[in-house]
């Protein structure tokens, strides 16, 4: 197998591009795709300060690496979620990556700063762990970016992530979610915009990027995520992709080009109802935002059971 | 050859003389969902693996529903 660009031995095939690449040209492909996504969707402007949401996994470390390679000013934010050894190992990966490159990594520890971990919070709030985790991440990334004076939050969502979320939203016709499923979510109420520079790159490509760049990332799946719907959607789409390369790309980018705007009114209607959380100021449709409710439920002491004399 | 698999971590002994794509088919793995790594680099699908090779088959699917 030869590199489609230079005819040297290839290390990877990318079937949806009907092309093979040597290491150097594959890394260039990844950087070019990120640069194109940033340009096409006006994600970042020169001189803006970006905060990368870093998990210690392949996608967040790869996007941080590529942004720095492309010359953007990007710091990292790692959230300690209190998921046992998984969180310990993830934090080590994020710290090692930042340390080796002299990059700034901000750390927030959920148990230390908010009094609960994800397994406890999910149980107390009667949410699935991925829901409590996603809610906490979105809130804390927003808050850290706002207090740190960052212009934009960067996440490592890749093409597979976006295609899988789209698949789930279409299966259940979540019209307001479909209206917000964009590569860029504009800032509002003092909160930063959010961008997804990896939307043109698949999950396999991001793992390959890390291997070829020598980036050590946490390969093990989060123990809380095992068996969740999102992973099931990804497996289903990959089964289709295996027999019809390019399907995930066509599904997601076809949606953006031909259907996304049809759901904008649904998303705008939902956004119009948002006020500010009376405790933290975050956007919320009620008096108290979902994260503050989660904190309250997860940290409230159980009602003591009185033992002693019977009345 | 030795084949290292993840989630859960395990090790298989597989006879050499097989190409990467054929190995993945034999193990019933979707080539869109894994990378094959030998040493510190990737091995493309048409490479013939030898008895003495040690390869890792690394899953690439990850993530919660955030």
Name a few traits of the molecule.
heterodimer, A: 311 residues, alpha/beta, six-stranded mixed beta sheet, two-stranded antiparallel sheet, 13 helices, globular, B: 66 residues, mainly beta, two-stranded antiparallel ribbon, 1 helix
Helices and strands of chain B, in order, run as EEEHEEEE
Helical coverage of chain A, percent range:
40-55%
Indicate the overall shape of chain B. globular
What's the pLDDT, averaged over the residues of chain B? 91
Radius of gyration of chain A: 21 Å
What does the model show?
The complex is a heterodimer of chains A (311) and B (66). With 311 residues, chain A is of the alpha/beta class. Helix content of chain A is 50%, strand content 12%. Chain A has a six-stranded mixed β-sheet with strand order 5-4-3-6-8-7, with helices on both faces. A two-stranded antiparallel ribbon of chain A has the order 1-2. By secondary structure, chain B is mainly beta. Chain B has a five-stranded mixed β-sheet with strand order 2-1-7-4-5, with no helix packed on it. In chain B, strands 3-6 form a two-stranded antiparallel ribbon. Chain B is globular and about 35 Å long. Chain A binds chain B through residues 1, 10-13, 15, 20, 23, 57-59, 128-131, 133-134, 137-138, 160-161, 165, 168, 203-204, 206-208, 211-212, 214, 219-222, 224-225, 228-231, 234-235, 238-239, 241-242, and chain B through 6-7, 30-35, 37, 40-47, 58-66.
